[in-house]
Amino acid sequence: MIIKVMKRIFLCLAAATVLCSLSCNGQRNLRRTPHGATINAMFDLSHQFAFYTDGRFASQYLKGQNTSMNWGNFYDIDFSNVNLLVLLGCDDRSPYSGKDREAIRKYADSNGGLVVLGDPGGKSQGSIAEMFGVEFEGTTSAALTSLRFAPGPVQSQGNATTLKLADPSKWTVLVSDKDNKPVLVMSNTGSKNVVIGSRSIAGSNPDAHDSINVAMWKPLLLDIASHKTVDVSKTTGAKGWNDLGHDETKNGLEISYTDYLAPYADAMFDITARIMPYMEKRMGVPLSGNMGSKIMLLATGGGGFSSGEMIALAVWWGGFPDKEDSMIEFITHESVHSWVLPFAEIWNEPIATYVGNLVMMDMGYAESDKTKGIVGANERIAACIDRARKADPNFNLYDIDGHSCKEGVADLPKNQVNELHWGKSYWIWEQMRAENPDVVADYFQAKRKYATKEVVTKYDANNTVAVMSIAMGRDMFPWFRSIGFDVDREKAEVKF
Question: Could you give the 3-state DSSP secondary structure of residue 473?
Fold first, then answer.
């Protein structure tokens, strides 16, 4: 069963990852909407993976329309049933190929709506704009105004990108700054279906709370998609994450990747193969069933996810392949999310990265090396704990979710809960590891043996502490209560 979890990037010094909610094909957001849907939209994740691109833009600006995400080789898509293609970004380390640019040109010539958003720093994304005679030229902090769709003020997240037009007569300016510099333009020749502009004037947050300029974007997208008729009862042809183009198996590992990430495949095979024995030793048990049996490479340095069977990894995490310390922690983190199944942990994010720190130690990265830009595992753990101590110096004021456990002490403010959750979780494990260096392995061995689906209905704090008691060889309930856990041995389904 695929576990769907979405998470933000939490940084314990240089130490965290993200988990996103996905299912197993590129059509996951293609909805059957017979009452008024006219758009089959596609977003590209193959050149730059971002949690926002994976459905959030659609949720903000295309409600009621069919949307899908492409994961595989872009040039290999059949665009015949697509009438809106949105390109929000391209990492310069996985640039568009000549075949990709040709496919985009042919798609635009078919009257399909095309949106290209960028900024002056993105050469690859800029290459697509330049195909149409537009350059992401500079930036402006001046007030922006919509001149056609929902005329009036336009919001920008930071400085907006200004555009240079090779032939201004071919473009209608939709948004400009107070100096009349274009920020968003639409072609006014042919089918009038190409829109190019600043990335800053559309949402970008993974939780999609920044639905800026909705009144402008909704009618604009409908307009440029209207020049091509599609069958909304059929799929767009996007390549799913099970159709990346390359599936390779080495040393018992199966890795999938696109053409664009082929240069990094060998390095990912190598480091993953080296990590696995250390990880299994630290966890004390093998992976559950088929969990974590497949690895997918993502064109990003900013995160990944685990869906149980599939582990998706950012190929440039922490400066990889030039540096491997953070990648060790990252791969371990995502793998642990699969390892702990079928029951997630009460400290699901912290324990995954904590084990990653232990594996870093085992692989020679216990200490920092500033000359090489390496932040050692000991420093990462200590820094995470120290940040939490600012809110709870002795770790006896709050539980790991920031709820007060002392009379007269208010619950922790929401903006401080995350650091407390991570730091206190690390501190708890460090206290136990000082007494029992093999506590992680002993804990997961006990969990695998005693916390079965036949016994446990909810793997809560009570069951967690019961399993921990087995691992430590003594009743841990009094200690956990002393540090703010509202636990009761009698309420635990796991008995010891």
Answer: coil
Q: What is the pTM of this model?
A: 0.82
Place of tokens 């991570």: 422
Chain mean position to CA 278: 25
CA separation for the pair 492, 457 (Å, rounded): 10
Query: What percentage of the chain's residues is helix, strand, coil (to nearest 5)?
Result: 35, 15, 45
Distance, C-alpha 292 to centroid of its chain: 17
Beta strands in 188-261 (DSSP E): 194-198, 246-250, 253-257
Q: Name residue 345's amino acid.
A: E
| Residue 478 CB burial class (10 angstroms; 0-12, 13-18, ≥19) | exposed
- Strands 246-250 and 194-198, how do they pair? unpaired
- Buried b / exposed e over 97-135, threshold 16 CB at 10 Å, is eeebbebbeebbeebbbbbbbbbeebebbbbbbbbbebb
- Does residue 342 contact residue 6 with C-beta atoms inside 8 Å? no
User: Could you give the 3-state DSSP secondary structure of residue 208?
Assistant: coil
Residue 117: closest CA among 65, 169, 180, 50 = 50
Note whether 18 and 50 are within 8 A (CB). Answer: no
Asked if 9 contacts 374 with a C-beta cutoff of 8 angstroms, the reply is no
Residue 190 DSSP class: T
Residue 23 in 3-state DSSP? coil
Query: Hey, how many other C-beta atoms are within 10 angstroms of the C-beta on 423?
Result: 26
Rounded Cα–Cα distance for residues 424 and 406 (Å): 16
Write out the chain's pLDDT in tens, 496 residues.
Answer: 223 233 333 333 333 333 333 333 344 344 444 446 799 999 999 999 998 887 889 999 999 999 999 999 999 999 999 999 999 999 999 999 999 999 999 999 999 999 999 999 999 999 999 999 999 999 999 999 999 999 999 999 999 999 999 999 999 999 999 999 999 999 997 667 999 999 999 999 887 788 999 999 999 999 999 999 999 999 999 999 889 999 998 877 889 999 999 999 999 999 998 999 999 999 999 876 655 568 899 999 987 887 667 788 999 999 999 999 999 999 999 889 888 988 999 999 999 999 999 999 999 999 999 999 999 999 999 999 999 999 999 999 999 999 999 999 999 999 999 999 999 999 999 999 999 999 999 999 999 999 999 999 999 999 999 999 999 999 999 999 999 999 999 999 999 8
Helix (H) or strand (E) holding 177: strand 171-177
Note whether 96 and 127 are within 8 A (CB).
yes
The token pair that represents 154 in the structure block: 């336009």
Entry field: residues in the chain? 496
Beta bridge partners of 294: 254, 310
